[in-house]
Amino acid sequence: MKINLFLKVWLVLIILTICTALVSNSTLVTSIAATIIVVLSVIKFLLVANYFMEMKKSHSFWKLSILFYLSIVMGTLLFALKW
């Protein structure tokens, strides 16, 4: 059952990677495309951290520190995209 879950998460990661590639090659406005790519990257990071690095079972301090780190990095990137 756990292998089946890992397979599903892996397929979602592949689909998100394909979506990222499609968005990067699209004719969307650059800031919108970059925002979509950043959000998809954060989702992929959380999936990898929770399922393959088993952060789901870790102490809440580590979970909160990952979320804090992601919010700072994502906020900085999105702020830089607006300039």
Secondary-structure blueprint:
Elements: H1 2-24, H2 30-52, H3 60-82
Describe this structure in words.
The protein contains three helices and no strands. It has 83 residues and is mainly alpha-helical. It is flat.
- Mean pLDDT equals 89
Query: Strand-and-helix sequence, N→C?
Result: HHH
Shape, per Cα inertia axes: flat
Count of distinct structural domains: 1
Distance between the termini: 47 Å
Number of strands: 0
Which structural category do the helix and sheet elements fall into?
mainly alpha
Approximately how much helix is present in the residues? over 70%
Poorly predicted residue ranges: none
Strand content: under 5%
**Rg on CA atoms, Å:** 15 Å
Kindly summarize this structure in a few lines.
With 83 residues, this protein is mostly helical. Helix content is 83%, strand content 0%. It has one domain (2-82).
Q: What keyword list fits this structure?
A:
0% strand, mainly alpha, flat, 83 residues, single chain, 3 helices
